[in-house]
Amino acid sequence: MKVVMTRSYDELSRQAADRVIQEIRDRKAVNLGLATGSTPLGMYRDILIHHRKDPLPLSGVMTFNLDEYVGIPTENPNSFHAYMNKHLFSKLPVPRHRIHLPDGMAADLQKECRRYESLIRKSGGIDIQILGVGENGHIGFNEPGTPFNSRTHVVRLTASTRQANAKDFGSVDRVPERAITMGISTIMNARSIMLLASGIRKAKPMAQLLNPIEPTEAWPVTVLKHHPDVTVIMDRDAASMSSFYQK
Ligand code: F6R
Asked: CA 140 to CA 82: how far, in whole Å?
């Protein structure tokens, strides 16, 4: 595992953006696994700044998001479809048919999970998966206790995750109770993974990942210890509970 510690969130964002830009420039075709949430916002901003100055070759780019809420229409500003459109795709012209997110409005959610899983596989798999991490160690919406061998599935969100997302919805009872997420094994199939973590709230899950303890389903992020190509980019606050950290 490669660990990069940055002095600030802006530096984290720049480094993450540089890596994604490099992947897009280096390969004719690249499948990007994308995340929503507050952590990757700076990275998306920096990718767009770069693209405005020096346009990226996008015809070979395909994207797959980690997750989407169940029962929130794509045009609802709180859907992850709307988030991606607002923060990236409205200004980065990836061909529409090459952008993929799970469909949280599908009539048959189990069928939709199987469709998404097989779409990723048939498209050649994910080359680089961007991840954030929850305070409870979740990756995607895989909450503590999710089996490491899980594939794309429907999850019931925990009270703490719904609370963490309440600000977007105005109140916690408006946060959907369910979501579709890539499973842990789906994420682990990516050829490389880049995990971003910023702020003191992420110090505990990062310590679980970086300290020498066995991976445990109680902290989903710890599964990344088993992956051969993980880069962690985090700021000092997120690193502050890890044993290698020195002030
Ligand atoms: C987002 C996702 C989540 C977030 C995590 C951290 O698509 O799957 O796992 O990455 O909840 O969220 P932020 O970045 O808002 O702290």
From this structure: 17
- Spacing, Cα 81 to ligand 1 middle (Å): 14
Q: What is the pLDDT of residues 74-128, one digit of tens each?
A: 999 999 999 999 999 999 999 999 999 999 999 999 999 999 999 999 999 999 9
Query: The whole model's pTM is what?
Result: 0.97
* CA–CA dist 92, 227 (Å, integer): 30
How many other C-beta atoms lie within 10 A of the C-beta of residue 16? 25
Distance 36 CA to ligand 1 centre (A): 6
Residues 82 and 122: beta-carbon distance below 8 Å = no
CA distance 216 to 208: 9
Structure tokens at 102: 């799970």
Q: Could you tell me the distance, in angstroms and rounded to a whole number, from the CA of residue 134 to the centre of ligand 1?
A: 6
Atom of ligand 1 nearest to the CA of 34: 7
- How is residue 185 written in tokens? 């094994």
155 touches ligand 1 (CB under 6 Å): no
